[in-house]
Every structure is written in C-alpha cells, then in structure tokens.
Amino acid sequence: MASQEKTEDPTPRRYEEARSRGQTAFSPELGSAVLLLAAFWVLQSTTGDAFYRLGEVMRTSFRSLSTDDLTPLMVYTASIQTELLILQILAPLFAVLIAGGIVLNVAQTRFLLTLYPLRPDLNRINPLAGFQRLCSTRSLVELAKTLGKAAVIGLVAYRSVIDQFPQMVLLSRTDLRQAVAALGGAAVSLGTRVSLILLLLGVLDYLYRRREYLQGIRMTREELREEMRHTEGSPEVRARVRRLQRALA
Predict the structure, then answer these.
(1) How many CB atoms are located within 10 Å of the residue 89 CB?
(2) Do 81 and 61 meet the contact criterion of CB atoms below 8 Å apart?
(3) Could you read off the pLDDT of 17-28 as tens digits, one per residue?
(4) Measured in Å, how far apart are the chain's first and last C-alpha atoms?
(5) How far apart are CA 220 and CA 10, in angstroms?
(6) Whole-structure pTM value
(7) What are the distances in angstroms from CA 211 to CA 5, 102, 208, 217?
C-alpha cells in the first residue's frame, strides 16, 4: 500500500526519538582513519629527534653498565632514564589519540549518551533473527567494504615497497643510525599513505551510513498524520477551537 511506504522526510520529533534510541549516523571507519593519520603525523614530527635521543641514552647506559664496578644503583638509574624517555616519546601520541577519539565521537554523535541499546532484547539471541542479519544487505555491504579495503591497502603497500626497494638495498652500506632512520621514515610514509586511503574510504562509509540512517527514520503518511494529530490535536478539535474563537471575537 502507498500509505505504508516511507516517503515522508523525518520530523524533528522523529529525529529526537531516533536519538533517544541511540540511532545516529556514525562511522567507526572514519574515526579510526583520522586517528591513524594523526598518529603517523605525530610520529613523523617527533620520530627523528626521539630516536636520536633514545639512541644516545641507550649508548650512554650501555657504556656505564659495561664497567667493572657496576652497582644496582647504576642499573636502576639507566633503566629509569630509558623508561622516562620512552614515555616522553609516546606521550604526544597518546595525547593526540585520546583527544582525537573524544572529538571525533562528539562530532559524529553530538553528545549522544543513552543506555537504550543496552536494554535486554531477545532478538539478539534469536537464531532466526541472527541468520537474517547475517544474510541482510547491510552484512553484504560490510563484507564488500572489508574486502575492498584489504585490496586497496595491499595495493598501496605493494607499490610503496616497490618504489622504496632500491633505497632499502643501499642501507647495508650505511651505519645503524641511518638505516634505522631510513626504515622508520619508510614505515611512516607507508602508514601515511594507507591512512589517507582509509580516510577517503571512511568519508564514503560515513556518507553511506548517513544515507542509510536517514532512510531508516523516514515516515509513512499515516505516521506523519498520527504525529500531527498528537502534536496539534485532531482536526475535529482544531475546528471546534476555531469556531469558539470566532464566536468570542
């Protein structure tokens, strides 16, 4: 029946009802891609100096630990210096990941906080309902996205390795510090490329999920009339109010 088709745009009340049930356009892939790109950006900005300082600390520690008059205090001091430097290197990365995760979640959900999705639901343990979800269009789309993402990442990684292979071969002629720096730079470059691809796929995934969300909360004409009846009153009541207003005028 035409009246049962969801052809009407959702009303503000419909939006609020959907949010109260925890329904919103949310893409975990987009958030993960942004955080991954931010992580590689932080590593690219701090890795060179950080690894140099870490190498200096380890070199100094090994030199001091190689003496004959080694004491437990010297071992403790060397280990503390190394741990503090590692923490100093990782602190900006952790700060960016935590802050970015909060900002991205708020940006997509607009401070949505509800316990509705945690309510008991027998359909979650219903084998028939689970099989229907497994064979649904959404599951097929998720499978296609996963396979496509793996193929794209594999292709980008392959091309990056092929492009940098000649430089990697020459690393055997350099010292350890230069080799580690070159390998670290290559890893960060590869990670940045993969992150950009994932970011593009995440944007497309968000647009798809938003379209799916908006289609899911569309209304039938009967639902729209019923909502108008609840919010504005029945036509008979509105007509009577208008008659009384005209009589009192």
Answers:
(1) 17
(2) yes
(3) 877 777 787 888
(4) 44
(5) 9
(6) 0.69
(7) 17, 24, 5, 10
